[in-house]
Amino acid sequence: MDWPTLATRLFGDAHAIVADGDFLGGTATFDGAAIAVVGTTNHAAVGVELALRQARAILATIAEHPGRPLLLLVDTQGQKLRRRDELLGIHRAMAHLGCCLDLARREGHPVVGLVYDQALSGGFITSGLMADACHALPEAEIRVMRVPAMARVTKLAEELLESLSRTNPVFAPGVANYVAMGGVRSLWEGDLAAGLRAALADRDTADRRAEEGARRGGRRVASDVMRRVLEA
What we know:
Strand content: 15-25%
Largest sheet: 9 strands, mixed
Radius of gyration: 18 Å
Order of helices and strands: HEEEEHEHHEHEEHHHEHHH
Number of strands: 9
Helix content: 40-55%
Number of domains: 1
Structural class: alpha/beta
């Protein structure tokens, strides 16, 4: 789904969201209250400039509109793989973006992530996965690493990883697998405004991803390992 269609289904005509290149920003009125919108489009490759622009929009919301809900619209192919961005410190720019979202949460801003198209790698980790909870449309595409890249990193055969991906969500791409692992809290289908309304009403800001992954069968031991480490 493209972002203009999404915005209309969420807010009708009551929004002033605009795209500037790969950056999305603006405000909308939802159930009579203002909501800030920040995100990406065009399968954006998130480089230094785009990460910092999102961070500035988030910091402006914190400074000028205390407590205003923040909706993150995610459509990214991941971090920009360019030497220029590496030399400029893309890791620090993306970490800064994540820290700004953490600050927004700690300052009392409800932060909702929504993957509406594509979410890959670091561009997803420092945006939607930093929200109070991340949600997705059923047709969205989510993955952190393709099997060939995973094989190079883990030194395991691609055939083995392909086999594992058919039975274990941890090794497999796809929005359903991220729901099973707890990384995506819910899928928004049909009435998208109802999905946003429910997400804003859920004020539990605790990180429940490992627990939900265990309950849904996608990450069976992570929650138990975390508990044992904390108790040690």
